[in-house]
């Protein structure tokens, strides 16, 4: 798993690192987007190291897909670390005002100083985060129109762009990609389960089976309810749970065997779109 993922992302890493470094001086604050379902795995330690002491609002995006209680725990944890922390659903815009309020709170001294000098200018924020975490969606939500181009192909470098978001905010969409380097194979798995890493480059069936095992452990009621599993079916090895789900959905090929490819695609789609429920894979 881990090897595959690292190989698949040839990396504009150096270029992206340079771009972040070069532009850090011209922003007041950083909006660091994480996926609320996997705050740990979607946080790139390299980005963190580059940001240094720059004030940061950690945005737990896709909160609509995550377990609200666990999201609160993560927010407390980031607040303890001195970051602003906000839970956001960029798709609907729920939480968007809190992002701005949190930025203003962190920058209150600077805003006061500016005011004393008779200066009022928008807060300049750099938006960073791994691919597919929702950067374009957030920027579009702030800007109120389709300003940033959603780009899903990993490895594609976009042009740096400033986007005005009303009178109070300007957002810098950083080009390039920065995948986390990871030692723990669970990180790669979590990125794959949530769809951060596209299926074309990984073994969906393997991931779907692992997902069955994880969901049976952390959200058994939701898994049982969605696929009408019996306790005995749930209390089995991940592959057997996977097969039980395939049978329930009638995803069979000749001879009563499971169509593993379709079953995996169905399971991953239903998990990623929240149909199984709001589930967070990582606890603080
Ligand atoms: P990026 O710029 O960081 O690469 O991410 P982008 O905004 O392109 O978002 C990646 C996917 O995540 C998109 O889905 C987007 O709609 C979805 N998304 C972003 N924010 C949220 C959120 O807060 N909640 C939920 N549920 N989804 C979110 P897609 O399937 O690739 O495209 P689309 O068909 O939804 O437009």
Could you tell me which ligands this complex binds, including any ions or cofactors? guanosine-5',3'-tetraphosphate
Class from secondary-structure proportions: alpha/beta
Shape: elongated
The residue ranges in which pLDDT falls below 50 over 5 or more consecutive positions are 1-8, 148-157
Oligomer: single chain
Brief account:
The chain has 284 residues and is of the alpha/beta class. Helices cover 45% and strands 12% of the residues. The protein has helices spanning 2-8, 13-24, 45-51, 68-80, 96-106, 108-116, 135-143, 185-193, 204-218, 220-227, 231-234, 238-248, 260-272; strands at 29-35, 56-61, 84-88, 123-128, 161-165, 169-173.
Write the layout of secondary structure elements.
Layout: H1 2-8, H2 13-24, E1 29-35, H3 45-51, E2 56-61, H4 68-80, E3 84-88, H5 96-106, H6 108-116, E4 123-128, H7 135-143, E5 161-165, E6 169-173, H8 185-193, H9 204-218, H10 220-227, H11 231-234, H12 238-248, H13 260-272
Parallel strand pairs: 1-2, 1-4, 2-3, 4-6
Antiparallel strand pairs: 5-6
The chain binds guanosine-5',3'-tetraphosphate.
What does this structure look like?
The chain has 284 residues and is α/β, with parallel strands linked by helices. It is built from 13 helices and six strands. It has helices at residues 2-8, 13-24, 45-51, 68-80, 96-106, 108-116, 135-143, 185-193, 204-218, 220-227, 231-234, 238-248, 260-272, and strands at 29-35, 56-61, 84-88, 123-128, 161-165, 169-173. A six-stranded mixed sheet has the order 3-2-1-4-6-5, with helices on both faces. Helix 3 links the parallel strand 1 (29-35) and strand 2. Helix 9 (204-218) packs across helix 10 and helix 9 packs across helix 13 (260-272). The two termini are 24 Å apart. It binds guanosine-5',3'-tetraphosphate. Guanosine-5',3'-tetraphosphate (G4P) binds next to helix 7.
